Amino acid sequence: MIASIAHRASGIVLFLFVPLYLWLLHGMTGSPESFASASEWLHSGLGKFSLWIVGTALIYHFCNGIRFLVLDAGFGETREIMRSSAIKVIIIAAVTAIILGALL
């Protein structure tokens, strides 16, 4: 249940960051001044935190999406397997979030 709600929440986070993606794309492909502005923002604390949030949401959404595809294919439909696979996805997402935070 929580994994499903978190999957939806991570999808919403990814959707809400689309304007930021577009601004960064515009900044990185525009003039040298806009590139410098976008690069400066990316290296700021808020920029790094935003990248961490988006990266964590993307990893979780991807891993849990694969889990849901496997479940939809008819594998692991027992309650125990569904619960254990959800816990594994959360652990994978937590570990990669820590690694991503260390890299940023």
What's this model, at a glance?
The protein has 104 residues and is mainly alpha-helical. Helices cover 88% and strands 0% of the residues.
Mean pLDDT figure: 93
Tally of DSSP helical segments: 5
The CATH level-2 architecture is identified as Up-down Bundle
End-to-end Cα distance, whole Å, is: 31 Å
Helix content: over 70%
For the sheet with most strands, the description reads: none
Question: What features would you highlight for this structure?
Answer:
104 residues; mainly alpha; 3 helical TM bundles of succinate and fumarate reductases; 0% strand; elongated
Task: Please give a structural write-up.
This protein is an all-alpha fold. It has one domain (2-103): 3 helical TM bundles of succinate and fumarate reductases. 88% of the residues lie in helices and 0% in strands. The radius of gyration is 17 Å and the shape is elongated. The two termini are 31 Å apart.
Please outline the helices and strands.
Blueprint: H1 2-16, H2 18-29, H3 32-42, H4 45-72, H5 79-103
Helix pairs in contact: 1-4, 2-3, 4-5
